[in-house]
Specification:
By secondary structure, the chain is mostly helical. The chain has helices at about 5-30, 35-60, 75-105, 105-140.
């Protein structure tokens, strides 16, 4: 098995772990667990950073994988893909800024930005998993 065959599945696994950590961080902050919330969110950032490294390595080392679905599913796939990529580019610096505000103790500024960052980040993680499933499992 080549690296190009393994890395898409690794990126999907990292993406799924990140999504679980994002959901856990949300539940923890809502439950008032201010001791565990930062751990979940920093872990989500770390896993997402690992995802990004693996994703870049994959795309520099593997040929482009073409979506093979036909008919009405094609515009659905490309709509998801375009929104995923555009919002991923937007949310990446937002995550860094949201984390920086938390580390700096700017809780109100962190909270205001996190209200936008978190749902976008969840959307990007979820749509990444959907795009992966469509490319590698549903339409071969």
């Amino acid at each position: 098995m080549t690296t190009a065959n393994v890395l898409p599945h690794l990126t999907a696994a990292l993406n799924a772990v990140s999504l679980v950590l994002l959901l856990a961080g949300f539940v923890l902050v809502r439950a008032g667990r201010k001791d565990w919330h930062p751990r979940a969110m920093v872990s989500a950032v770390a896993v997402s950073a690992a995802f990004l490294v693996v994703y870049v390595v994959y795309h520099f080392s593997a040929p482009i994988f073409v979506f093979r679905g036909q008919g009405a599913i094609r515009p659905v796939y490309y709509t998801l893909l375009i929104s995923h990529v555009a919002l991923a580019a937007l949310v990446a610096p937002m995550v860094g800024l949201t984390l920086a505000r938390a580390v700096q103790g700017k809780v109100d500024a962190h909270r205001r930005l996190a209200r936008w960052t978190w749902p976008l980040w969840v959307y990007v993680s979820l749509t990444g998993l959907i795009v992966y499933a469509m490319l590698y499992h549903l339409y071969l």
